[in-house]
Amino acid sequence: MKSSQLKSKFRKKMFGMNFVDGLFYKIIIFTLLISFSYIYLYPILYLVTNSLMGSNDLINDGVKWIPTTLYFKNYAQAFKVLDIANSIGGTVWYVLKASILSTVSAAVIGYGFARFDFPFKKLLFVLMLVTFILPSQVTMTSSISIMRNLGLISTQKSMLYPAMLGQGINAAIFILIFFQFFRTIPGVLIESAEVDGASEFKIFYRIVLPLAIPSIIVVFLFSFVWYWNETYLTSLFTSDLLTLPLRINRFRASYSELFPPGSPGAALNEGVVLAANMLVILPLLIIYFLGQRHFTESIDRTGITGE
Questions:
Q1: Tell me, what DSSP letter sits at residue 225?
Q2: Average pLDDT estimate for 74-95
Q3: Which of 111, 107, 112, 212 shows the shortest CA–CA distance to 168?
Q4: How many Å apart are CA 19 and CA 100, to the nearest integer?
Q5: What confidence category does residue 108 fall into, taking pLDDT thresholds of 50, 70 and 90?
Q6: pTM of the predicted model, to two decimals?
Q7: Angle between helices 84-115 and 157-164 (to 10 degrees)
Q8: Do residue 68 and residue 160 come from a single domain?
Q9: Measured over all CA atoms, what is the biggest interatomic distance in the chain, rounded to whole angstroms?
Q10: Scanning 179, 203, 211, 238, which has its CA 20 to 30 A from the CA of 273?
Q11: Which of 47, 73, 99 is the last residue of a domain?
């Protein structure tokens, strides 16, 4: 009798009443979460630990994760290499302008697609999605020709004007986010505003935009991150702008010419490069941690996870 009771209690403890409330199910879930978390956190952990290693630790095969001594001079050298004192302001200002323009244009275009019916609407919507499907390398030649004919090449305007006109980096995704959100707004709400005599512009910025705050937050944060990390298009279209990621690329390329991969001195620079990478992604990490609650709430409310 006691044996059967112990087995029943053990089974109830391990598998619960509906399996999902049992200890066995929780162990599986936590194991999966820790495994996936490690996959995403591994690059950050590697970045932090190796950026604090001196040259002796970097060339020592016995030192993997924990440095023998914390070497903060890598960050001091990276600070000088990136010229952060002079470049951080220009980088943030450029990314901020591009992100705001991209968010505003995506909101206007998404509202137009969701609210109005006009000729060739479906065709234009498909062409808008095609701009995301096609890689930038396919349209690179034509884009350069257009910017050169307009006299915008080698200036920040070649990146800001497309963002203002709904052709910025991954703008199709942003338009689609706003389009899906604006379609969920009840038509009765807009019709009541029209009855009260509100114009389309007033309906947009007085009624629709306040409801679209979750979408605005998501689009702005995504746009900020993508413009911050973009190096290919930025180096291709602009010459009056040298962002922090571009400075890292140039520094890495210059050092690779002096010490090619595999040479004895190649590993000596790794700590400085990793420290520079850490300094570059630090603003993004700060923004994410400060706006984490708003970001996750916005993701849920906009439904871009497929719900």
A1: H
A2: 85
A3: 107
A4: 48
A5: very high
A6: 0.79
A7: 30
A8: no
A9: 90
A10: 238
A11: 73
